[in-house]
Amino acid sequence: MSTDTPGIDPLLALRAPQDPACDVFLTGTVFLDIIFTGLDSAPVRGTESWARGMGSSPGGVANMATALARLGLRTSLAAAFGDDHYGEYCWDALEQGEGIDLSMSHTVPGWHSPVTVSMAYEGERTMVSHGHEAPAPATFPGTVPGPPDREAPTGTASTGTARIGSAPGSAPAGTTPAGTAGTGSVPAGTTPAGTAPGSAPAPHPAFPRCPPRARAAIASLVPGRSEPWVASAARHGALIFADVGWDETGRWDLDALPDLAHCEAFLPNAEEAMRYTRTDCPRAAAHALAERVPLAVVTLGAEGAYAVDGRTGAAAQVPAIEVEALDPTGAGDVFVAGFVTGTLADWPLADRLAFAGLTAALSVQEFGGSLSAPGWAEIAAWWQRIRTLDDQDPAALERYAFLEELLPTTARAWPLRRAVPTIGFRQ
Description:
Blueprint: E1 22-27, E2 30-37, E3 53-60, H1 61-70, E4 75-78, E5 80-82, H2 85-97, E6 106-108, E7 115-121, E8 124-130, E9 135-137, E10 166-170, E11 214-221, H3 228-235, E12 239-244, E13 263-266, H4 270-277, H5 282-289, E14 295-299, E15 305-309, E16 315-318, H6 331-344, H7 349-363, H8 369-372, H9 376-386, H10 394-398
Parallel strand pairs: 1-4, 1-11, 2-7, 5-6, 11-12, 12-13, 13-14
Antiparallel strand pairs: 2-3, 7-8, 9-10, 14-15, 15-16
Helix pairs in contact: 1-6, 4-5, 6-7
Keywords: Kinase, Transferase
Region (Disordered): 131-211
Protein name: Sugar kinase
């Protein structure tokens, strides 16, 4: 991320004292991503391949969290972190490097961080991952969530942070099974109100039972599974934005996505949308989905994206920006982050699609999921440069004219080289 990113707050004109402190809440699994680039082809069995480039960064749900934070949204992430060096690095990169709130996150003693190795070549990627589900966090009075301990041995607390113990059983990383209490957050040495001195303090309600109040939350829908926190967040006023993965059951039944009923926007890709709606056209699929959710957004790959507002019936389509893709890792997450930003800022539907597509296009020109997420400096530099090129279609440029009111009058020259965090280096 560029160190001189302009301090743009896309929601500044809309903020009020009674608003939640958090703009967007999300949860999921954080991976340590190791990315190899500059490969001419896929690795061949029995041979060694040398890559011309390599980087490392937090991945998984961290891709989305980083993309949101770099666009100026106050982002809160609930996730499990290992107490290994990878976990320490990911925590520091997200909290200190990106300014993401990790107060709902916790460290799991003895659990190693999930890892993904990604190889980018021929405009695509191949990934190999390894990891185990994080044990569910137990509630211990007097403990607070904290980053991996740099000094104390596993299972012991050091000054300023406390370890979160693990209970038998497993749950998706960053979550607690329904009906169990989450991580407590009672300051050490204090007694919560209503608790008699000398008795065990009552656990402080925490995620997932009580997700933080937020303007929006992002969920990943899974067939046949409901996440209680989604309904809770929606009841407390959060707009729910959801994507979905491939349905391994092969049923492709919208009724098997119970949390869809709580969603403000649903953002599948074209293939997913057509399968779920039994249609043979992505645009028809978007209109069908708009009967189930207020906003249906279908990504069309090289053709851009198409969206339908189910409340008004309005539709919009914006073509993709042609770029030379280095690594598509995390581009979908960046697209969602851009669309969430535009929606919370109350932009017109077409502007939201254009902005989401732009941020995704900028991301694929760099390697790595969270590494490649653009900030306002990258967006400003692109807008300044693109208007100086002679072969640009004026009508196409007009599609992005709304950026004029958002961006600073001066920007750094293109291309921008971003800082690349790597585990091997420390300042």
